[in-house]
## 1
Amino acid sequence: MVSLIATQGTLFDLETVLDYGQSILNVAQELTKSLIEQRTISTRTIQAQMNRYFLGTAAEGAWQWKDAYEAVEVAQILYLRQKGYKLLLESPLTVLLELEKLIALCPTHTRRSEESVQLQQFSTPLPLAYLVAK
C-alpha cells in the first residue's frame, strides 16, 4: 500500500487512503484480540497480519514498520474502548498502572526509517499521553 501511494496513488486519492485506513484497522482489530487475552504481541504476529491485510511484505514495499506501529497504537485504543470509561473513573495511579501493563504487551518502536529519526518523529507513549492529558 505504501508503495502504491508513492508510485501510483497520492495522499489525495480517496480510494487509496480508504484502502490504507481499512488495512490498518483490520490489522488493529486482529491485534486487539491478543490484548484482550493479555497476550504479548510479537513482531512476528504483527508482520503476519500486516502481510495479510496489505497483500504483501515490507520487503516488497507493501507496508512499512511505521504503518505496523500505527496499527499497534490503534489496537491499544480499540482495547481501551472495550474497557470503557470505567477505567478512567479509577485513581490516576490505577489508570497509569493499567496503561503500563497494556504497553508491556506491545513491542517497542525499534524499527525506524532514517526519515523518522532525522525529523525526530516519535510516538508519545500511552502512559505519558495520559499524564499530559490529566
## 2
Amino acid sequence: MSDDRTAEANGIRASYDETETERVLEFEAAGEGSAIRPGATAAIAQNREGYAMLKVRPTADGDELERYYGFDMALDHAAELLGVSQRDLPVPPAAEDLGM
C-alpha cells in the first residue's frame, strides 16, 4: 500500500481515518500466522485535537474496552486482540503521532 494512511505487514492491515470527532487507527488480521486470529479486528481512537486518552475498541465503532495515556500501551492491547505481538502491528505514517 502506498499512501500515508494505510499499511500492511505481518498479516495485519492497518488504516487511519479522521471523523468529525476522532482520529481512528483500525487493524484487521488479514493473513495467517501462528497466533493471528483470522478476521480479528481492533481500533485505537483519540479525539481530533489529539490531547485525550487513547481508547481501544474491538472495532472502530465498537464499545470502548480500555483507555491509555500512551500509544505503546494502546498498541499492546490492540495486538493482544489480534493475537500478535505489538511489534507486528504496522502503523501508517499519518497515525504515528497518536497519543502525543
## 3
Amino acid sequence: MAEQAQLNRIPGHCGARSWRELNSWDAVLVLAAVFLAAAFCWRSASVTQHDWNWSALWPYLVSRDASGAWQAGMLLKGLFGTLRLGFWSLIVALVSGGLVGALSARQRGFAAWPATLYITVLRNTPPLVLLFLVYFFAGSFFTEPFLRVEDAVASLPAWAQQTCAALFAPAGQMDRMAAAVLTLGLYSGAYVAEIVRGALEAVDETQWDASASLGMNAWQQLRWVIAPQAFRIMAPPLTGQCISVFKETALASAISLPELTFQSLEVMAVSRMTFELWIVTAALYLGVSCFWAWLGRRMERREFRRRSASAGRG
C-alpha cells in the first residue's frame, strides 16, 4: 500500500519526500541521469579535446580597476542589462496583458474582436521579426523624441545620469532599449492576456451571480471576489511566462543592445573562448530562471497556507 502511494505521487503537486520514502524507480532515474551525464562528459572530452581554461574567464566576470577596487566585468554588466530589460518588459507584459485579459473575459462576438486581434497577431508573429519592425520601422518616427530625451538626461547632474543609466539604459542606447522593452512586453503580454482571461473565466459563474446579488458593481466583483480566486489559477502559468520574458531578452542582441548574450558574443570575439563562456552564460540565465521559479513556488505555498487557514476558521 505504501509502495502504491509512492508511485501515485505527482511531482510538483505533492509534499517533499524523505530519503526513506524513495523507491526503486527513483534509484533507476538517478542511475540513468548519472550514466547520461558521464557519457556526455566522456564523449565531449574525446571529441573536442578542449583545453579547459576557466581562470581566463574570471576577468570578464569581475576584475579590479587601477585603484584596486572590484568592478563588474563584461558578463556581469550584460547580466545587469538582461535584468533591467527583463524587468521593464515584464512590467509592460503584466500591465498590457492584464488589462486585455480582464477586459476580454466573458466577452463574446464583436466585443471580443479587439483582444482576439491583439493576441492572434502578436502570438503568431516571431518575436525577432516584431523586434525588427519596432526598431527599424517605428524607430524612424520616434528618433527626434528620443534625441530630446537623451539631451534632457545629459543636462541632468552626474548622479541623476548614473541613476537613469542604471534603471533604464545608458546614453545612446535608449532607443534600442525602448524598442526591446516594447516588443518583448507586448509579445509576452499576448500570452499573459490569455492566462488572465482563462483564469477569470475559470471561476464558477455562481461567484459572479453571488457577488452581483450583494450589490457589487463589475469592478468590485472583479476586485474582491473573482480576482483572488483567479489568481490561484493563473499563478503557475504566470511564473512560467515571467521566466520566458527573461530568456527572450537574448533577442535584443540582434539590435546590439548590450545584454548578456550580446556581451557573451563580444567576449567570445576577444578571448576566443567558446565552451567555458557559453556554459557560464547558460548558468547565469539558469540562475535568473530558477529565481523566478522559486518565487512562484513561494507565492503558491503562501496562498495554499492562507486558504488552509481560511478553511480552518470557516
## 4
Amino acid sequence: MDSRERNIYAGALDCSSINDLNDVIRVAEQVSDYILIPNVNSDVALGRYVAVAGQIQGDPRFPEAAWSYLDFAKIGAEYYAEHGGAYTHAGYVLRRQDAEPIREKETQIQLDLSSSQAQASVCLPATKEELERVKRTLGVDCFAEAAITKVSFSVPYMDGHIPTTGVCVEDANELAWAIEGMKCEDGELMKYLSVLSVEQPETMQDALRYAMNLDDYERIPEDAYEYGRTVLRRIGADDELIDTIDGYMDFEKLGEDTMMEDGVRRTEFGLIRRCSSPFSEETQAMEMGGLS
C-alpha cells in the first residue's frame, strides 16, 4: 500500500466491525471500496465540504451566498450520521457506495510555494481551512508573501493553454473549482479547452474569466449537415418540422454558410462558436475545407 491507501485503510478499520484477524484482512482487501476526502476531519470541515460539493452539483440547499448563515457543524454531523465513515488525521474515510451526494475531491491544479521560512505544496481546489493551514506552514499572513515556484495541471493540455506567470493562489483555486465543476458535465472540459485555444488568454485571470463565462460558448457538431439542422432548432423549428423538410432542403449548405456567419472556429478539441458575438475576423482564419 502507498501512503494514501494506508490512510484509507486506517479509516476503513475505524468504521468497520472488527472482531478478529479475518476482519482486518477483509478490510485490507476492500480498500478500493473506500474513498478519502483529504483534510476533512471534523463535523465543521465535513459540513463545509458537503456545501461546496452541493454548490458544484447545483444543490439548491447550499448557495454560496448563504454560507455565512449555514451551520456547517450541523450539516457535517447530519451527513456523518446518515453515511457513517470515520475521521482520521488525513481526512474523512467512507465507503464509495455511501458517498453520494459528495464525491472524492480530485486535484486539478497543484502549486508549489516557497517563503523565507518554509516550502509547501497546495492541491487545488481547496477549502478556506486548507488554504489557512498552508499559510501557517509557510509562516505567512497572505499568499502574496510567498513565491509560486511551480504550477501543475492534472487535466491534459491545460498547461499549454493556461499561462502560469503572474499566478495568485486565490485565482488558481477559483479556477480549480471551476474545472472540478466542468468534470460534472459531459463535454464541458473539451468546450473549455476549445475556448482557451481560440481566445488564447494572456494570464490565468483571463483563463478564469473564460471559465466563468463558459455558457457564452457552444460546441458545434463536426457535420455541416447536422449543424444546419441545429440552426433550424435554434430559430424555433421542432424535430417534426425538420424531419418533414429533410430531403427538400440542403441542410449541409445551410450549415456551412451559417458556420461562416457564426464565426465558428476549428480547434484540436473540436469546433466552437461564441454566442454573444462572433469571433473577430482575425480569429476566423479556419480551414473551411475541414467544415464540409
